[in-house]
Amino acid sequence: MTQMTPELSQAIQQAGGEPLRIVDPATKKTYVVMREEVFDRVRMLLDVDEDDPRAFYPLLADLSPEDWEDGSVYGLPESP
Question: Tens digit of pLDDT for each residue in 11-58?
């Protein structure tokens, strides 16, 4: 594992907890540095198996009724 330089550590602190974008001067490619626990949460969201509806249960659990789409758009009866 690569060790963090003091300069990178200072830049991360100045970012105040937000992901830090850094540019490789040799390739001009941009990279994002974030805490490991944030990366793990993002990875979980991206690794959803679209063929398994159970993979969406955690995402659906976070929806509030205000987020639900009106089913009448699809010809469904209105909910009570």
Answer: 999 999 889 999 999 999 999 999 999 888 888 777 766 677 777 777
Question: Distance between CA atoms of 69 and 79, rounded to whole angstroms?
Answer: 11
pTM: 0.53
For the chain, the 3-state helix, strand and coil shares in percent, each to the nearest 5, are 45, 10, 45
- List the structure tokens of 64: 């509030």
Quote the CA–CA distance of 8 and 59 in Å, as a whole number: 34
| CA distance linking residue 17 with residue 11, whole number of Å | 10
Chain centre distance of CA 35: 12
Q: Which two tokens stand for residue 21?
A: 């974008």
